Structures are given as C-alpha cells and as structure tokens.
Amino acid sequence: MRILLTSYSRYPAKIGGNGSSRIHDALALGLAELGHTVYYSVDEGFAKPLPDGIVKSSRRRRKVDIYHFNDYPADVDGKRPPGPPPGMPWVHTCHGPDEGVFPPDLAKHFIWSSRGHAAKFGGTRYVWNGIDPGDFIYSETKDDYFLYIVSCLSRMHKGLPIALAVAHRLGLRLVVAGQRDVFLPPAPNVTYTGYVNGKRKAALLAGAKAMFFPVQIAEPFGLVVAEALMSGTPVIGSNNGSVPELVTPDVGFTCDTLDQYVAAAERIGEISPAACRKRAMTEFHYRVMAERYAAEYERELGSA
Q1: For residues 288 and 141, what is the distance between their CA atoms, to the nearest angstrom?
Q2: What is the pLDDT of residues 44-59, one digit of tens each?
Q3: C-alpha angle 161-166-169 in degrees, rounded to nearest 5
Q4: Which of 37, 86, 123, 135 is least surrounded by Cβ atoms within 10 Å, i.e. has the fewest?
Q5: How many other C-beta atoms can be found within 10 angstroms of the C-beta atom of residue 183?
Q6: What is the rounded distance in angstroms from the CA atom of residue 264 to the CA atom of residue 228?
Q7: DSSP secondary-structure letter at 91?
Q8: What are the chain's domains?
Q9: How far apart (Å, rounded) are the C-alpha atoms in residues 157 and 184?
C-alpha cells in the first residue's frame, strides 16, 4: 500500500517530541519494514534522514491508497486541517482523552488507542500503541527503588499522591521523575530527578523494581506502561481507562484503594521481568502496531 501519514512535530520526535509523535515515527518505520510505502508529512520538518520506505511528503499528495491523519478532522488552533480528496479512504487516530464530538460519517473513520478509549466514545476500532525495543534496556536485575514517571509533576491526575503515600506507608525508596513545576515537601525516601528522556529514562525504567501508574482519569493508553514492560519492569496501576487492558496479572497489578497499592508493592517480587518483556514484545512492539494498522487500512479500503 501507499500510505500518507501525518504527524505534529519534527522528525525524529524522540528529540523533544511528545508521545503521540513518537508513535507516528514508529508506525511509519513499522509500515515501511512491512513493505509499504509511507509518505510522511510532519509539521515541523525533518532533522535526520528517513529510513528506506519512508518518503518526505506534503499532506496534499494525491497518488496514495489511503490517508492516515493524526489531526483531521480535529480542530488545531481553532481551524480544521485539510482532509483527504473527495472519495478517498482515510482514517484518524484519536490519542487524546477527548477530541470533541463528531458526526457518524466522520467518526466511522476513527481508530482509538485502546478498547476502553474506543468504548468511552461509542467506538469499536482500536490499535494499541507500539514502541521500538531498541530505545529501551531490558534488565532482569533490579535496583532497590520504585519509579513514578510523568512529564510534569503538577499533573496530579496521574496519581503522584498515591505513589507518595505507598512510599510513606512502606518506607520504600521512590524515584519521582518529571518536571518539578509544583511544590512538593521533601521526604527522606523520595528522590526527585526532574524531567527525564532518552538514555536516562531507559536506565531508570530498567533498574526499577516496579513502576507506579496510579492514573485517576480514563487514560487513553499510557505509553510509559508499554515502556516499563519493554524494560522488564512490572507495573502497579489503577483500574482506570486502558490500564486493566495493558497490565494483565502476569505483568503487574491494578488497584482501587491505597491498601491494594500497598499490597501490590509488597508482592511485586512475584512478577517475572521476562513475562513483562514477553508481553511488551508480543503486544506493544512497533511492528505489531504496524500490522494492526495495515489491517485497519485494508478494512477501510474494503468499505470504500
């Protein structure tokens, strides 16, 4: 297939890009490795050469089989970006927790980030996000710390108070990674590292006994969950949004109450790093994501 794929940021998104844009890069690579031709349109240009099978493109390119938009038909800065030519097959991936309400003739083209994400908006089509295992370190040897990681610590809906409460209750060592844009009282067993990315983030994920993901909203996906599992690190998460889909009993625990989080932290030694890695390679590898999107493209072409 010839696929036009759009993205928000500069290529490669791993250099300062957000999670959604990193997924777009990984999808483009996976589709190219599967033998498809990807015409890649990014909003902020290209900082590095593209792999074989991926071609720099404008979003207005006409000679393609299908358009995969990561913006249209959602508004961007109050305006709707250009869509496909009339009659051309297209899909749109919904990454955010809420992209607005759309009429059925548009919403039927939407692919969501998880089953729970789709169900929240009355949809059924979803593809889990995928990541490149080469960006992470798999380790079966763990240090003595638990990890909580987020872009900005002020995003309290991600559940930082719960992670801190568990650390206080058990006296366990907790490493908190994220931009410290809010005052947090010091604690003897809590280390704040600031925002992390790249190799430093990979090392923290690989060394942790477990990662807390006690998100308190209906999380569409939770990319850091896939990253932790790829590193062989179990996850202690909430029962909100997509988390129960991603964190199965073989790779971690999902919880509702503080007592349950405490019990999960005490039982974390029951989880095998190898099981975490196996699940990540089976379900959250970027090439698996690409295969699932290719199936959705075929479905869209068939309905068109």
Answers
A1: 27
A2: 899 999 999 999 999 9
A3: 120
A4: 86
A5: 7
A6: 16
A7: E
A8: 2-130+285-303 (3.40.50.2000), 133-283 (3.40.50.2000)
A9: 15
